[in-house]
From TrEMBL, chain A:
InterPro entries, A to Z: Ald_Oxase/Xan_DH_a/b, AldOxase/xan_DH_MoCoBD1, AldOxase/xan_DH_MoCoBD2, AldOxase/xan_DH_Mopterin-bd_sf, N-heterocyclic_Hydroxylase, OxRdtase_Mopterin-bd_su_IorB
One term of GO molecular function: oxidoreductase activity
Coiled coil: none
Official protein name in the record: Isoquinoline 1-oxidoreductase
UniProtKB/TrEMBL annotation, chain B:
PROSITE patterns on file: 2FE2S_FER_1, 2FE2S_FER_2
Organism: Sediminicola luteus
Pfam families the record matches: Fer2, Fer2_2
Gene3D superfamilies: 3.10.20.30, [2Fe-2S]-binding domain
GO MF, one annotated term: metal ion binding
Stored SUPFAM superfamilies: 2Fe-2S ferredoxin-like (SSF54292), CO dehydrogenase ISP C-domain like (SSF47741)
Protein name (Swiss-Prot/TrEMBL): (2Fe-2S)-binding protein
Annotated transmembrane regions: none
Keywords: 2Fe-2S, Iron, Iron-sulfur, Metal-binding, Oxidoreductase
Domain 2Fe-2S ferredoxin-type: 2-78
Superkingdom field: Bacteria
Amino acid sequence: MTTKITFNRRNFIRTSSLASGGMLVGFNFFTACKDNAKPPVDLAQLDYNDFNAFIKIADNGKVTIFSPNPEIGQGVKTAMPMIIAEELDVPWEDVHVAQGKLDTQNYQRQVAGGSQSIRFGWDALRQTGATTKQMLIQAAAAKWGVDPSSCTASEGKITNANGDVLGYGDVVKEAAQLEVPEDVSLKDPKDYKIIGQGKRNVDLKEIVTGKPLYGLDYKTEGMLHACVVRPPAFGKTLDSFDDTAARAITGVVDVVQIEDKIAVLAKSTWAAMKGKRAVVAQWTTPKNLESTTDHDRILSDILDGDDFEVRREDGDVKKAFAEADEVVERTYESPFLPHACMEPMNFYADVRSDKVHLVGPIQTPAGTAGRVAEMLGRKEEEIELEMTRMGGGFGRRLYGNFVMEAAAISGKVGKPVKMVCSREDDMEMGIFRMAIKYRIAASLKDGKITGYHLKEAAVNSNMYGLIPHFFPAGCIPNYKVSTQSHKSPITTGAWRAPYTNFLAYAEQSFFDELAAKLGQDPVQLRIDLLQNVKGTEDENIQYSGERMEGVIKLAAEKANWGNPKEGVYQGFAAYYSHNTHVAEVAEIELEKGLPVVKKVIVAVDCGIVINPSGAKNQIEGGVIDGIGHAMYGDFSFDAGRPNQMNFDTYRLIRMKETPIVETHFVENTLSPTGLGEPALPPAGGAVANAIMAATGQRLFKQPFGPQIKGVTQELIG
Amino acid sequence: MPVFNFTLNKKKTSLEAEGDTPLLWALRDELDLVGTKFGCGVGQCGACTVHINGTATRSCLTPLSAIDGMEITTIEGLSEDGTHPVQEAWAELDVPQCGYCQAGQIMTASAFLKENPNPSGEEIREAMHGNICRCASYNRIEKAVALAATKNA
C-alpha cells in the first residue's frame, strides 16, 4: 500500500540539467511544510527560517545529496539524506552526502535549532525523493515508449514490464527536461529499506582519521590569525590601551581597535595568543556590575513580589489554594551555564571590495550573513557563507557575534582573517543559559492535586512559545503560569532545550514530592493526571496524554519500576519537549555512602526513528549531558566577570561519572520528531528523585554535587 | 629562530619556530596537521592528545623546545587509512556526535591499549577520564575501547 498525497510540488521543487551531465533537483522544504507544521517557538527570537537542499544525480547514477542543515553533532547530515534516499530508492552505498553551501541567491535560509530539522523536513524530503524517482520513471517510460505506470524503480534502476532495465544515470538528461509531477506516491513505512536501519555518521571516516572538517581547521594562503581582547566584565568599556609590547612579539603583524575590543593579528595562532596577552588595556568600570549574589537576591525578590506576566491561567488557583487541605510550595534554583562547545568559537572572514567570504561553524548562516551585510554596509548577495562541521553547538552557535567580529576585523585590515577564541575567551564572550528560579505551589485536597501555580524569575528573558502549556497544563483544573525577568548586561540565550533544561527538573522533582505527600506512587500519579488531558481541544496543548502515558509505562516496565535490585534506588521523570515524549528512570547505588548514578532507562516516542544508531547516540548524549550539568554545572559572576574560565574550574561530566544509558523507542508510524534536545530535560529530575530515594535528601538547587550530604571538596573536584 | 628536529608520523621533520610554541599550534598552523584539536589550552580536556615516544601527551602544554629528537604520532599518523583497531572500533560503533574530541579520545585509547591490552571496564573508565566529550558520547567511547582491545589494538 502507498500513501497518495496532493501537493503543489512546483512551489518548492526545481530541476535542471547539469553542464557536466546529470540532473540537479533543488527544493525549498520550508515552503513545502509550512502548511502542516507550525514552528512551536518564537521564530524571530531563535532565527528559525526556511531550509533548502539539492540532489544531484550524475549520468553514472551516483547520487550526491547536499544536506541542507548545519551539522552540529545532532546527526541530521546523515538522517536527512536517508529520508531522501529512501523515497528516491537508491542504494545507500551509492549516496554521497555533502554539506550544502549557503548561497543566498538560490537557497533561502538554513538553521539548526530546536530539534526541528527532521520534523520540518520529513514531508518535503520524502516528497522530493519520490518526485525525483517519478520523473526518472517517466523519462525511462518515454524512452521505451511504454506507460510509466507499467514501470517500477528500485535500488537505482527502473524496470519495465518486459524486464528491460535502465539505470537512473541513463535517463537523467531526459528526466531533467520533464514537468515536475503534481501527484506522487510515498512508500508505506513497512517497505522502508533505509529508514529505520542504523546508518553510520557520513563523516565518520574523516572524523576518526583527523581530516579537516571544522571551522578551526579552515585556512587559506596568506590568512592572518586574530585573537581579541574583550571587555573583562559585562558592563565595562574600553578606555585606552597600549599595544607596544604586543607589536614587539615575533609574528604579530597588526593591532586594531574594533569598538570596545582590541584585535591582535599575527602569522600564527600562537603569536596572536601571545600578542593578546601582551596588550595592556584600561577599562572604564561602571558602579553597577552584576554578581551572582545580586542575581540570587533579585530573582528571590521577583518571586516574593506580585509583578508577573500571566502566561496561562485555567480555573481559579486562588480559590483552590484557599480551599486546600494543604498547600505545598517549593523554590528551585539554577545557575548560569556556558555552552562550552569543545570547538571554541571561531570564524574565517575575507572582506574584499567585490565580495565577502565567510567560512565557519554557525547554526544560523542566513541570519548571520544578513547581519554581517548590514554591519559592513554591503548587499546580502555579496556575502558568501560556507558552513563547516561544528564542534558542538548546544545553542551557542545560533548567535553569530563571533562571525561579526571576524568580519569587522577583516574589513578593518583588508586581509583574510581567522578569528579564534581561546577557551577563556569563549567563556568570557558567552551567550549563557540564564540563571532562573522557579517557585511552584500546589494545593492538595481529598488526595488530589486541585491547583498549581508556577512562577518563573529569570535573568533577561522568560520561557517562550508553548512551554507554559506543557505538562501539567490541562491535567490540573486550576492552573497558572506567571513569569518575570530581570534585565542584565550579561548576554544570555538558548542553551540545549531552552528553559525546560531546568524547568523539567523543578517540576518533576516537585511531582515526586507531591506523590510522597499524597502517599501515591509517582508513576501512577502522573498516569492518573494524564487522563485529564486526553481529548483536550486546547490547541496550545500539543503534548499527547496517550503518548506521554505510553513512554511512562514503557520506561517503568523496562526498568522494573518499584522492584529494583537490592541496593539500587530509582527515580522517575517524564517530560515532553521539542515535540518528543520522553520518560526516564535513573538508578542510583550508594558507594561509601554517596549516591552514584549507575544506569538510566529511557523510553522515547519520537514517531518513526529515521536512524536508530544516530538516534540512540542523541539519547545517550542528552541524558548524560543533562546529568552532568545537573550534578556539576556551576557558573557564577563576580562584578560582571565569570569566575570559571576554563575546564579546571568549570566542571563537565567525565567518563567515570557516566551511567549506562539504555534506550527504548516506542514503535509507531507517526511522523518523526527531533532528538537533539528532548532526552536532556527529564534527566536532572530523574536523578534528583533517585538521590531522594537513596539518601532521603531532596535537592532544590543545581548543581546537586556540592550539596549532597557527606560530599567533600575532593569528591566534587 | 631556533630549528627543531623530530620524527613526525614516521617522517624526519625540521621546523623553525619559537621554542615556546606549543606542539599543538606547530602541528595545526605550521605542519598542516589539523586533526589534533584545540579545546582548552591547559591540559584539561584531552582534545589535543598526541603520542610522544609512544606516550599519550597533551600537545597544548608541550612546547617545541621539549620535543627535539622525539617521535611524535598524531591522529593522521596512527594508521595509513583509518585501519588502526581503535579507529575501526570507533567506526564500527558509530561513536562520534559532533566528533571534535574524538581524535584526542582515539589517541588516548590507543596509547592506553598498547600498555594494557586486556583492560577491565574500570581500567577503561579510569584511562579515558581525562578526555572530555561535550556531546557525552561516553557510553560508546567506553564500548569502543573494549571492542578495540578484542581487535589486538
